[in-house]
Amino acid sequence: MRQPETPNLYLSGHLAAWFKIIAVGVITFVAFEAIAVATAMPFVAESLHGERFYALAAGIPLATQLITTGLAGPWVDAKGPQQVIIIGIVLFLSGLVVAALAPGILVFIIGRALQGVGGGMLLVPLYVMVGSYVIPKKQGAFFAAFAIAWVLPSLFGPLIAGFLVDYVHWRWVFGITPLVMVLFFPLAWVKFRKFPQIHEKMPLKMRKRFMFATLASGVLIATLQILSGLKPEQFSIYVLALALGVSVCLFLSIRHLVPTGTFLVRRGVPATIALRGLLNGTFIGVETFLPLLLKNIHGWDPTHAGLVLTASGVTWAIGSWIQGRYPGTKPLRWFSVIGPVGQLLGTLITMLSVIPEFGGWWVLMGWCLAGFSTGVIFPATSVHALGLTPASKHGKISSALQVADTFGSSSLIAYAGIVYALTASFANFSFAFTIGLMCVLLVFAIWAAGRIFPEETGISASAS
Prior knowledge:
By secondary structure, this protein is mostly helical. Helices cover about 75% and strands about 0% of the residues.
C-alpha cells in the first residue's frame, strides 16, 4: 500500500474518529473470541460429545487464520482494504453463528475454522487503513488503541466467558459477538464506503511463494490438528509416519516466511524469531489445556477456571510494563534469562496439579508466574528484532514476528493434542505428558534466548 500523496486524501476528524471506534470494536471482539473461548472449550466438547476433538476445536481457527493472513496482504494491495475487511467480518461472524448453533462437534469445528478464515482477513486491512488514511502524527494513538483492544479481552475475557457458561449457556460465548457486531455492521459499511479509493495494484506473482507457503502451512497444521482427534488405538505406524511427513513438509513451507537460519537458531534476528515462536507456542499450548485439566481433575467450574487465565493475563501485563520501563541491551540480557527460565518454572509448578492431592490452586500460582515471566521477555523480542534490522526491512521482520506467533501457537496446540490423544490411556497423567512436551521445548527456548544477541563484535559496533 502506498501512502496518500496529498493531505486531502486523509480522513476528516469526524470520519477518523468513527474509524477508530469501529476498528477498536472489531479487534476487541476478535481478541475475545481468540482468547476467552479457552475457558468454555471443555464444556463445549462435553456438551457436544467431542472430547477427543478438543485440540482440533481449540486450534483450528489459528490454522485457518494463518492461511488468510497470508492471502489478505496481496488481496488488499490488489483491491483495497475495504473489500477485504467487509468480507472478513461477514466470514468471521458466520463462523461464530455456525459454532453457536452447532448440533454436533463436527459442525462446531467447521464454524471455528470459518471464524479463523474471517479473523485472518481483518487485522491486515485495518493496519493498512491506518497507514493510508490517518494523518501520520495521529497514527500512534490508533495503534495504542489497538493494543488496548487486545489487552482488555485477555484480562477480562476468560472470566466473562466462564460467567456465561456457568449462568447462561456456552453457546452465548460464541453468539454474543455476532449479536453485538451485527448492530454496528451497517454503520461500518456506510462509513467505509466514504473512504477514498487510494490503493494501487501490485502483481500477485511477486507474492506467489509467500501465498503458497502460508496456504500450505495452514493446511498442514490443520492436518496435524485433525490427527489429534484420533483414538489411541488408531495411531498406527502409518498414521505416525503421516504425522512425521506432514511435520517435515510444514517446516519446509514455513521457512519461507521467516528469516534464514530461524530453525537453526542462528544468532541475532533468526534466534529472536525462534525464541518468540517457542515462548508463545508453549504458553498457548499449555493454556489451551488448563481449563480441561481444572475441570476433569479438580472439578472447577468455568468461572473459576477463567479466573486462572485472567490472573495470568494480569501478571503478563505487569511483566510487560516492567520490561518497558527498562529498555536497552543490558536489561534485555537479564530479561532474556528471567523470561524463559521463569516460564519453565511456572509451567513445572502448574504440572504438579495433575496430581489430585496437590489441588488446582497450584495451577493459579504456576500460571501467574509463567504469565509474568513471558510478559517480561515477549514484547521485548519485537523491539530487539527491529533494532537489529535496517529500517528498509522492518516490514518483512514485522511479518516474520506475526508468523512466529501464529505458527508457534497453532502448531504446538496440534502437537500437544496428538500427545494428549496418544497418552489418553494414562487418564489424568495424559496432561503431564502434554505439559511435559512444552517444558522440553522451553529448555530449548532458554538456549535460544542466549543467542538473540549478535556476536560480541556486532554488539560493540552497534553500541559505538
